Structure formats: structure tokens, C-alpha cells
Amino acid sequence: MAAKDKRGRLDFGTVAGLAVAVAGVLGGYLLEGGKPGDVLGESAALIVFGGCLGATLVANPMALVRAAARRVKDLLFEPADDRGPLVEQLVSFSQAARRQGIVSLEQDVLAIEDPFLRKSMLLAVDGMDLQEIRSTMELEMDAAEHRAEAEAKVFESAGGFAPTIGIIGAVLGLIIVMGDLKDMDKVGKGIAAAFVATIYGVGSANLLFLPAAHKIKTRAARQRQRQELILEGVCGIVEGMNPKMIRAKLEAYLDRAAREKPRAAEAARAA
Length: 271
Known about the structure:
78% of the residues lie in helices and 1% in strands.
């Protein structure tokens, strides 16, 4: 069983979504006669992203910001959906537990890479009470969910600051322009350049920071569902539930395609 924190495949939804959003905005701008060079500005980028980073650090503990930054790679890579193999592994454990007793699984459990599954099964093998197993592992799930929620809020705070800092950048640009009104042609270009900071602020908030926060929450919810599957399976094993009943119960966590795979394999073996 693969460890849950192993990097999965590239998340084309994140990459393609960001590319489509940027292409749509820029494409519309170009269709209206805009020039790509008009929306490029190093000083605007420095004001918006530097100011946004500073404000985010002021608003959040440093350790939390670092933890949120580590989430960036999780946004680019989608964890593999291993719920189907997880069901098969739990059913296999239940069959072995009914034949030889749950203690016989100790060596197999120590070889499990997934930390949540390994801990759940170790508590079961060690003979912990069913309610204690459930409460202990639910505490783990709650803590993980709260960490993800806190890290998502870091991106939300960055998304909240970015538009305002973009406006600050635009005002700073206008102050510079208003300091020299002799050449009206330069004034017009300067005003246009000043609003680039506003575009960076609003654009980064709505195309980057806020969608990133939403995806972190979505991934956390999916991870919790996966852990609930594991916990229900382990509790079924401890209760001595029939493996077929465990499979039927855990299949509720699978989508339609994942449910069909084991049935097709079983039909092929029977044929």
C-alpha cells in the first residue's frame, strides 16, 4: 500500500485551470486591442507580491505560513485514488483475522506504509477497546482537518490582502505621475502603468490565492473521507464482522468505477 503522503500524478486541473484563466483574461484584453507589454510591470509585481507576503506574515504565525507554503506542491500534484486497493487490503486483513486471530496480523501491520492505516491496525492488534480506537483515530482526523483549514486560511488572507495592496500600488503610481504633468503623453502612459498593480492584486487574489485555499479544503475533505473508510474497516475487523459485510460497507466510500473493478476481477477469476 502506497503511503498517503507520496506525491501523485500532476494535477492537470490546477495547471490547465490556471492556464485557461490567464489565457481567457489576456485573450479578451488582446481582442480589445491591448498590448501584452502594457500589463507587464516589475515594480507593480514587487509592490503587490512583496506587500502581500509581508501582510500575510503579519497576520499569521511564521510556522503556519511555512506549512502553507509546503502545500503548494500538493496543489500541483494530485494524490492517487487508492480507496479501491484500501478496501481490498482491509477485506484481506479481516479474512486473515477471522482465520488466525487479529494478533497474527502484527508483522503485516508493521510493514504498512500508510501512517493512518498502520496506527489504526496497531491499536487493533494491541487489543485496544473499539471505542478507544474510534475516538483516538477520530482525534487524528480532526487534527489533520484543522491543520488543513488553518493552512487554507493563510491563502485566503493573502487573497484578501492582494486587491487592496494592488490599489496601494496604483495610488503610488498615480502620485509619481501627478508629480510631473508637463508631458500629457507621459502622464497617460503613467496612469495606465499605475493600474497594472491593481490588475496584479485582483488577478492574483481570484486566479491564484483564493482558488488555492479552496483546493486545500477540498483535498482535506477527500483525505478525511479516505481515513473514515480505513477506520470503518478496522472497526469492522475488531468487531469480527464478516469480510463480505465489511466489503459491502466500505464500498459506500467508492465511486462507481472503483466498485466495478473488484467485481470484474472476481468474475474473471470465476470464469
